[in-house]
Design a protein that fits this description.
Blueprint lengths: L4 H6 L2 H7 L16 H19 L2 H4 L3 H9 L5 E2 H5 L2 H6 L3 H8 L5 E3 L5 E4 L14 E5 L9 H10 L6 E5 L24 E5 L3 H14 L4 E4 L12 H10 L1
Antiparallel strand pairs: 1-3, 2-3, 4-6, 4-7, 5-6
Helix pairs in contact: 3-8
Length: 246
């Protein structure tokens, strides 16, 4: 994808200098271990991948903050400064020019001509009611570190079961609206370190559940919903508002 002139102008020499000094931040060792060019390329792809995750089908409907930004803006544009302020983005770079350059690599997102906003290329997805039947809640693992995002993602991926979305909840963390009704069924959610892991299918989630139970028989691992009750095809937050108006 060709970078528009307005965007190229944003990526000044300071941005390039910053990118070529990121070897240690990327965990790649010294410049002798990896060329500057490959270090820059890796950083750009990490930034693009992180931004794509924020706007992905799996995440966007569950991130009420970002979803509101998309829905209330003209044509779905979100100010890049909003995305650049997220913690994981801050760890990658604080340089706007680098973010713009990275997003030029994405086939899922596009940057506005002035280089100040970003949006999805595809329309927002519809709410998927099957998500509750292919999502697991995991708690009571031997170590808190075992339940952190990186550990679980790597574990499931090596098992050939890469998760679609993985969220970690420390005790006391605010529970998002899409999980509110799950708290009654799963009291560990919000009170003990827990992970909510979404898979692409019920079959994949079932296999993941079996793998965890085989590795740790004392772990708390269950489907968010066992399918005993019919799930509405409506976003639970919208349903809650309708009930209040009734």
């Amino acid at each position: 994808m060709e970078v528009p002139q307005a965007l190229r102008d944003l990526t000044n020499q300071n941005s390039i200098d910053e990118m070529t000094s990121m070897d240690t931040k990327l965990g790649c060792g010294t410049p002798n271990d990896l060329t500057k060019e490959s270090a820059v390329d890796e950083l750009l792809h990490q930034i693009a991948h992180q931004c794509e995750f924020y706007f992905s089908d799996a995440n966007i409907l569950k991130d009420q903050f970002l979803l509101k930004k998309v829905k209330t803006s003209k044509d779905g544009w979100v100010k890049l400064e909003v995305v650049e302020g997220f913690k994981k983005m801050q760890k990658l770079t604080k340089n706007h020019g680098i973010v713009v350059k990275a997003l030029a690599l994405s086939d899922k997102l596009e940057v506005s001509e002035d280089g100040l906003s970003v949006r999805r290329r595809n329309p927002l997805p519809e709410w998927d009611p099957t998500v509750y039947y292919r999502t697991l809640i995991i708690s009571e693992l031997p170590s808190v570190d075992d339940i952190k995002l990186t550990s679980l993602t790597e574990f499931f991926t090596t098992q050939g079961l890469p998760p679609t979305l993985l969220r970690f909840f420390a005790p006391g963390r605010k529970i998002p609206s899409d999980l509110k009704r799950s708290q009654a069924m799963h009291p560990f959610l919000g009170t003990k370190p827990s992970a909510v892991v979404e898979f692409g299918s019920r079959e994949a989630a079932s296999k993941a559940l079996s793998v965890i139970r085989q590795r740790c028989s004392t772990a708390y691992i269950h489907f968010l919903s066992d399918g005993a009750r019919k799930t509405s095809d409506e976003n639970p937050k919208k349903k809650e508002k309708k009930e209040k108006r009734a």
